[in-house]
Known about the structure:
The chain is built from 5 helices and no strands. By secondary structure, it is mostly helical. It has one domain (5-97).
Amino acid sequence: MKTNNDDISDVAFVQLLKKHKHILNKSQVPAAKQKKESSLSQLKNELQQNYGVAMTEGQIMKKVNNMKTRLKKNIDLKQTGNVPIILNEWQKLLNEILEGDSNPSIKRLDGAVSLGVASSI
């Protein structure tokens, strides 16, 4: 039995994560938490059965959070200096799952208008 979570590729992990999107839900509503817990246990079982990788729920969440952090760091335009963003395959898939934009740190509101301030009254 393998216990190292590096034995599964990031692409395969994200594809499994795509089937269990409830894991990415931040809602603390009891029904959402229950769906998240059941999805987490199903993902844990799939990792064990299909890939022979034994991971706890905590390890799975840590891996998901680390992957999200690495993705956000790569797509943040303020950090990249407006250089063309090149993402790995797993980063593209995870960005689709998270429904990310090219720059998630700035979200424009639909119908919002920028107005100036008059210097004299």
